[in-house]
Amino acid sequence: MNIKWIKSLSVLTLLTAAACGSKEGAGESAPAADPAKPQTKEPVELVVVTPDADFNEALLEKLGKKFPNYTIRHINQSTKGNSIPELLTNGTPIDLYGKAAGGFAEEYIANKLHYDMTDLVKTYKINPADYEKGLIDYVRKLSDGKMYALPGNGNNLVVFYNKTVFDRFGVAYPKNGMTWSEMMELAKKLTRTEDGKSYIGLSGHTQLLLNWNQMGLPFVDPKTGTPMMNKDERWRTFFQTIYGEPVLTQAYQAAGQTFSQGNSAFYAGTVGMMIFNSNTAAMAGSNLEKMDWDMVAMPSFPGMPNVGTPMNATLWAVPAISRNKEAAMDVIAYLLSDEYMGEMSRRGKLVSKQTDAILKHFGSEATPKDKNWSAIIHNKFAPFPEKAPYEPKILTINEKFANEYMAGKADLNTALRMMEEEALKVIQQEKAK
Length: 433
Description:
Blueprint: E1 3-6, E2 44-50, H1 57-66, E3 70-76, H2 84-89, E4 96-100, H3 101-109, H4 118-123, H5 133-142, E5 150-155, E6 157-162, H6 163-169, H7 180-190, E7 192-194, E8 197-204, H8 206-211, H9 233-243, H10 246-255, H11 262-268, E9 271-277, E10 293-297, E11 312-317, H12 325-335, H13 338-346, H14 356-359, H15 375-378, H16 391-406, H17 412-432
Parallel strand pairs: 2-3, 2-4, 8-9
Antiparallel strand pairs: 1-3, 4-11, 5-11, 6-9, 6-10, 7-8
């Protein structure tokens, strides 16, 4: 089991938290609890289970200083043997749980770990109206109107571009506020062969684009439990717009690559633009540091000006089996505070807290300073699509046939029909359990 920990640290004083802002006029507003003054002061052990990449050594050290009486052990859920069922079978305590919103229900709720945090939210004076509405609405839906979790650090999609490729072909750089048709025109201009080297205009992570689509479309109708890919015409528009441009599909077929495989080619300098997680921009040691890059907001669909992708975020939860719910909530309150989220936002990382106090300083301390950090918060967030617990399996199916469509192995009608048929099998299997 891959476990990291911080032993209790002795400090004389605690840091003073920054005052938490709230949206003016919000009905639920109340003075925010000071996360520097934990409700629980006795020595406590907390086991935190999360695959969240942000929950790293630096954050563990920060939490150790913030909560010197707490011994915090971190179990990295992305490593072998650390799934929720395996941890429960082994009798491993789980005091605090965090996972990206899209995959939260699959293990957490399915294994009956959910606990209504409504009273804790009130006790700690956390105002849900301060956080991205789509995420809060999603949490309330999966919580049957209660509050099983709270959103933490967020993420969305932006378009990264390689200035060197644009300069080479004399093509104007993309900009915030473009439409998909304008973006595709740029992509076509960059798709060419020169000096024996093939260039492609655009790549992107297919699973991310499907899972966090800009129309907020679910894979499964939440009312009927039936697949939507071959029923909702908006999905057809989505596929035709992003994956159906002949110049791009022919280029990928000639290169023997899928749309997602173009991301590695982007870093290698043969793809002009890449759609990927915005937090990559602020990630130290990323491949972007080796190239001349910038970014712009996601292009928009007709009738949806300046609407980007939904905000995905880590959902932090206190499980029903937590041995010390107040101590676990101390940590969550800090991770949702102006102090912590303000720091992340200033560094150019998207966070779920969307108050003026957070947004007005977004990217002010981000590096490199000469990048278009406004791209990350330029668009409105699309509605958060409803997620069934088994959607990761359907996502894999949808990606498979999206690739077949782009590879010319299936026309769009066939691809959408196969997505529907395979998804139906998954749904039937899940219902039979």
